[in-house]
Fold these 3 entries.
Entry 1:
Amino acid sequence: MRRRIPRPKKFKAGDIFWADVVKGFHLIIILQDHSIDNHQECIPICNITGTLPNDNLNYSIPLNDHPLPDNWWTRVNQVKPRNWIICQPKDCIKAEEYSAEAVLGNIKNDYPDLFNIICETTRNCLIAPRLNNFCNCENTQEIMIVDDLRCKCE
């Protein structure tokens, strides 16, 4: 009888966990399912920060006073009064450097109100194109925005 070799758990779009990216540890959101079969090199991500984003960042979504789940704060002194989601066009992680066991939840499945904030902002503003797939914007009616001032994007 052949022994089965356990396969590593794959990341799913919407998984959130702590990763050492962008000058320190940040909560990150996986934007695309990880496929071990196709040897995906770098999985696209967004990160959550409590620091006011620099003006040179192209894609940030203010979460304002929206409370983030208490169970996400597994690191000391990480809770901030305000948070932003930063989605730069080239931000990604290498799956082999992280364990899917570190996942704190899935934003699509476990936190639909937060997922809706991200997707409404994506649909109404000129946000990173990689979020269109994450939010399934290709299958929704396009909304005409004359300028980004009215959609409350930063």
Entry 2:
Amino acid sequence: MNILSRMSFYYDFFIGKMSFLVATKNGLYHVKKMKIRKVLEGQFYGLTKFKNKWFVFHKNNDNGEILSFSLKEDRIISVQKKVMGLSPGCHQIDFCSDKLHVIDTYNNCIQVYASKEEKIIKIEEFYPFGSLENGRNSENYVHMNSIWKKDDFFYLFLHNETMKTGKKSEIAILNDKYKVVKRHSTEAVNGHNILKFKGDFVYCNSNENSLVADNKSVFQADLFTRGLALSSKYILVGGSQYGERSLRKNLSGKVYVLNHNFGLLHVLNIPGMVQEIRIVEPMDHCLSNSMSLH
């Protein structure tokens, strides 16, 4: 990194307005000027934004719910429960246009909600890979965990529980009727996240601790990779220690800051397993409603 790039990076992250949210198994964290502050207790996954409000998936014991909140002067205010009674196994959530899409991973389902005034109302659900007859042991269970929409297509990442099934992860492309038009095989093991950047698919090859672009490993981390955010200058990748499910609340993680050439600029330690990252300022281009950078 040359001196001008280094100065730009340090200004953006240590002095400037660059800030982001990190959803973990041990709380929701807000990071600004590289100072980490826990803003909500609990286990969190999907994070998205609609207009001036943020929405986050919260695992609440054996159920799931979606909370909304606002950020004011770097503090969370006006926390409200918007959707209750969800599966505890929901993963990414995102607004595509004005509709909230919830990836109900454990049920092979995409749930779609409409935003009407201050309410979030369920309107549809889709099973692009079929409903499950035997839960997660069903032959058609794909463990889809990530969604991203651009133009008329939805891009889904299918984890496929590689370590259990032997099936490598896949990228599925759906049309605007939620019908599968193509499935791409990958070499990822238990992968997460999906994005097109510079014309290439970018995703986390989680079990191999890497970030992949154009079917090639472009960044090697030292932890399980999950969580991806993109600004006009930087890429943020999440990392997590991994262990038995009963121990995971006590494990920690990292956020790796990369430039657009996938060069490592900085590593930030996070006191929780990272499940999602979203940039607050300036803009996160991993959100479906963001202006295109792709």
Entry 3:
Amino acid sequence: RERYVRIEDESPADMEKLTSLLMQSKDILRQCRREPAMKENGVYNSLLYITVLNTQQYKEEYILAETGDIFSDSKIDFVLKNKARLLGEEGRGNPVTIMKLYTKAVFIHADNKRFEEAEKLLEQARKVAEKVHHHKGCDKVYALYYDLLSSYYDIRLDGFYDTEDPDQELLRDKIFDATEKTLRYSKKGFSYDSDHLYAKNILAKATILIRSCLGSDKEISDLLDTAQKIITENTSQYADVRLQYYMVCAWYFALVHDNVELADAFMKKAWELSDIILSADLRKIEEVIIPCANIFLELGCYEESVALLYAGTRLCVKYPNTDSYARIKQDLCRYFWWTGIEGRKFELCRKMISLIESENEEIVDPKNRVTIPDKVRSIIANGIS
């Protein structure tokens, strides 16, 4: 509620205050668990759901512990057999909220490449969506389900939009199909949708067409014009869909028009907005730093690309014992060396290897250290700057 109030006031959320509220909420939940009867109270469940939803994604153990209990086989079977409970009787359940909880958990499993666990939750989510689909006002549940599905397939595709590999083409087709279904179910009432699903998936469709090289300039520009109109008329200046719009425009001018100046202008807008609305460094790395580095690479701007990737690793250093940051630091370093080798920035690569080796010595858990492949070491060692 605090977040939505601030959005309506055309102000970014007060993250310090929200963090304090979350800590209070977790303490209240811990106290309530001492009394078994409290766990069946609708208010308890409402507080639990909103606390998990607002917990930053990198706190994986907490999110999976709570959602693991919520989505246990016995509990979800009971919920599916009791539609009144699922539809929010006495605050015990809410299909929209439940679908968002599935999204949190699925993303964590997918990011950790635990695809079997992710797909088990996706199957549960499908059953929930089907259970309430015909109930008045539940179109959004199906929209959220297909949005989750397209995002899951996107994680599996791992950026290989422009591909001739049959398995990757199949994943790309699944993303496109799920995106189209999200658009169909989110179109109704998009003007008052706080999640901006309709506009986000117009942009997702444009992204697929841009990065797969399958869309015409007119088709893509029409999608961007439609998204811009919806965003201008229906969102605040701090809505995260605006950040997505800036990034898609940057891709558009980079890949469709090969225009460094315009692509850079939109990347700068995205960066400025991210400084205001993204409180978690992980999101800034995933949503801004890596895509911008990729765009610069596509444009042949190697210096700018490696500089961004380096900046991303410096953010990760702040969280040396956090698994999610360790994984993304590994990715950033891999992208750094690929880009550095392609751009013949061998001296920068050698310095980066030396820095990473030094940082690895300070990390206790071996799985959180960055692995430097022998092949990468050999190419960089023998390269001439």
